[in-house]
Amino acid sequence: MKRIAIFPGSFDPITKGHENILRRALPLFDEIIIAVGKNSSKDNYFPLEQRVAWLKQVFANEPKVKIEAYTGLTINFCKKMNASYILRGLRTSADFEFEKAIAQNNKVMADEIETIFILPVPELSAINSTIVRDIIRNGGDASPFVPSGIDVKSKS
Ligand code: ADP
Questions:
Q1: What's the gap in Å between 2 CA and the centre of ligand 1?
Q2: What is the per-residue pLDDT across 93-114, written as a single tens digit (0 to 9) for each?
Q3: What distances in angstroms separate CA 16 from CA 63, 71, 106, 112, 149, one per listed residue?
Q4: Which CATH architecture has domain 4-145?
Q5: Ligand 1: nearest atom to the Cα of 127
Q6: Where in the chain are the domains?
Q7: Distance from the CA of 45 to the CA of which of 11, 124, 129, 146 falls in 20 to 30 A?
Q8: Is the CB of 54 under 6 A from ligand 1?
Q9: Which residues have a catalytic role annotated?
């Protein structure tokens, strides 16, 4: 059976942290679908089309990576895509508490789906999209935090 993982998130915008987690997970799976979601508790800064376009650009040379937009429960999207794994990164203890609750509740709802966590490399563990968005909004240079070739600029 093909080992398919979903890597869900807002990717608003994609950072070097996301890129690192995905590239390190690639040898573990036959296919990874980056699932760009509309998160109910977050207002997105960059439009969905832009976030998807950047992801496609970064992983253009990775045949095992697919990019899809989704809404609704991640486990339902996993079932739709025949994915048995959810991939997530764990940066902080706050991430751990949040992710633990989601993964355990997902396990109750869909026992056949496993959540797999990867720890960031230390030099990328402080990067998060919220801070990157603040830098962009305020006219700072976000290029150290996003994959090379990604031209993030403030929308206004
Ligand atoms: P969400 O909108 O669900 O918070 P994000 O787009 O922020 O999702 O991130 C998607 C996934 O990437 C999450 O599992 C998050 O923990 C992980 N991630 C984000 N930044 C980093 C980083 N710097 N190092 C490792 N994992 C990260």
A1: 25
A2: 999 999 999 999 999 999 999 9
A3: 19, 24, 27, 30, 11
A4: 3-Layer(aba) Sandwich (3.40)
A5: 23
A6: 4-145
A7: 124
A8: no
A9: 18, 42, 91, 129
